[in-house]
């Protein structure tokens, strides 16, 4: 167990009255984490310098008790541990003096983590952390979040309107050491991305369902083989490069696109297509493996996740599904009566609040979408940019097709 007494006995600390201070002059590696030099430290800018210190940058390991403060017995009298020593003591107790990862915000690099290293190595020369990881701040409109500014959100608050997977993929879209600029627009886009991923996986599962128990050959198409090899390499390289998750997420689009290409090639074909089926199996496995590593593979089924995403979209739109279905019926009636301006207005009104209507052979369905003012190109489950023709143009095209 790490203690101030160990550090004193090893000659790295001294006692003044009933306080214990760490002597940074005794620590030759002080500044190794932050890269700061002792001469860069300008003492007294934030708090008054304690004249009892041998060096103004020395920090407290043990503080004598003040009236009304919690305190404990020690060899130096009643007092409490300093902030830095608390963390090192807990780490040493639960993780031992040597462990793999120590993290925190960028603002903790100096002096907190720098002081942790100094006092831990002073107590035990074998103390070592393999990786120090420091995350960027979460900002809103490029301003740091804080309760005092009133721009502070909890994960619980965000997940009332957005699926947790949407929040996770939003955060992974920025490298962990960079600032994360929070905005509802970016969460809408992240939600759309998750919907696309899970719709693609669901479409894949539906097609593969009859073949799950069969003995499929290992051979796959050359395109699928190249796609998997490239994606696997991108994933390993990016994750090894300081967990560069934004690159992984960008690379994920290629196998998803390939899956949709294969799905499209199988439409309308009654005979088995062994190469395509096995290619889907291999592509699905690779995508799901990566999603699992990233924590983006839900324990719920794909259809359940899609329903959860739709429920969240309805909450953001302040609508119920029955109200959306009623709007769909009204639009269908308007189209039947050739009231195209009215049908377009219904679709636009829903689109403006994040509900997209899609006409399919079976009728009209709805799905979440990014509202136009926050919108980038929308990908449907077949990985095609949705072309939103007005209803009059669509009717004219339908008539030409019939004739």
Question: How would you sum up this structure, described in words?
Answer:
With 403 residues, this protein is of the alpha+beta class. It has 13 helices and eleven strands. It has helices at residues 4-9, 83-95, 109-123, 155-158, 164-172, 184-208, 222-240, 245-266, 274-294, 302-317, 321-336, 340-352, 391-402; strands at residues 13-16, 19-22, 59-64, 79-81, 98-105, 128-135, 138-140, 143-144, 180-182, 355-360, 363-368. The strands form four sheets. The protein has a four-stranded antiparallel β-sheet with strand order 1-2-3-4. A hairpin with a 2-residue loop joins strand 1 (13-16) and strand 2 (19-22). Helix 6 (184-208) packs across helix 8 and helix 11 packs antiparallel against helix 12 (340-352).
CA-based shape: elongated
How far apart, in Å, are the first and last alpha carbons? 86 Å
Instruction: Pick out the low-confidence regions.
Output: 377-388
Mean pLDDT: 89
How would a textbook summarize the main sheet? 4 strands, antiparallel
- Counted beta strands: 11
Order of helices and strands: HEEEEHEHEEEHHEHHHHHHHEEH
Total of helices: 13
Strand content: 5-15%
Looking across the biggest beta sheet, what order are the strands in?
Answer: 1-2-3-4
Amount of helix? 40-55%
The radius of gyration is 30 Å
């Amino acid at each position: 167990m790490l203690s101030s007494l160990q550090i004193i006995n090893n000659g790295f600390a001294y006692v003044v009255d009933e306080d214990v201070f760490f002597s940074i002059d005794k620590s030759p590696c002080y500044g190794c984490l932050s890269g700061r030099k002792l001469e860069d430290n300008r003492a007294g800018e934030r708090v008054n310098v304690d004249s009892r210190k041998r060096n103004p940058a020395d920090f407290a390991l043990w503080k004598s008790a003040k009236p009304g403060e919690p305190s404990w017995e020690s060899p130096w009298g009643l007092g409490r541990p300093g902030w830095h020593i608390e963390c090192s003591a807990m780490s040493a107790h639960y993780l031992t003096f040597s462990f793999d990862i120590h993290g925190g915000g960028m603002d903790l690099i100096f002096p907190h983590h720098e002081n942790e290293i100094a006092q831990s190595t002073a107590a035990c020369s074998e103390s070592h952390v393999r990786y120090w990881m420091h995350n960027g701040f979460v900002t809103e409109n490029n301003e740091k979040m804080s309760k005092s500014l009133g721009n502070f959100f909890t994960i619980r608050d965000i997940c009332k309107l957005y699926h947790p997977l949407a929040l996770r993929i939003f955060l992974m879209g920025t490298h962990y050491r960079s600032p994360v600029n929070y905005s509802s627009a970016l969460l809408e886009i992240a939600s759309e991305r998750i919907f696309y991923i899970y719709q693609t996986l669901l479409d894949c599962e539906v097609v593969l369902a009859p073949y799950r128990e069969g003995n499929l050959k290992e051979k796959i198409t050359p395109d699928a083989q190249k796609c998997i090899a490239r994606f696997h390499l991108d994933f390993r390289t990016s994750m090894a490069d300081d967990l560069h998750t934004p690159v992984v997420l960008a690379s994920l689009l290629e196998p998803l696109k390939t899956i949709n290409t294969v799905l499209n090639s199988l439409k309308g074909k009654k005979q088995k297509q062994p190469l395509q089926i096995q290619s889907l199996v291999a592509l699905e496995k690779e995508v799901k493996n990566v999603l699992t590593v990233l924590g983006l593979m839900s324990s719920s089924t794909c259809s359940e996740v899609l329903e959860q995403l739709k429920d969240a979209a309805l909450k953001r739109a302040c609508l119920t599904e029955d109200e959306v279905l009623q709007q769909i019926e009204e639009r269908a009636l308007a189209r039947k009566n050739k009231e195209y301006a009215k049908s377009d207005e219904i679709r636009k009104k829903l689109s403006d609040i994040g509900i997209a209507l899609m006409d399919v052979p079976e009728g009209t369905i709805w799905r979440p979408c990014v509202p136009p003012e926050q919108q980038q190109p929308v990908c449907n489950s077949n990985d095609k940019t949705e072309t939103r023709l007005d209803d009059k143009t669509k009717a004219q095209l339908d008539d030409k097709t019939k004739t």
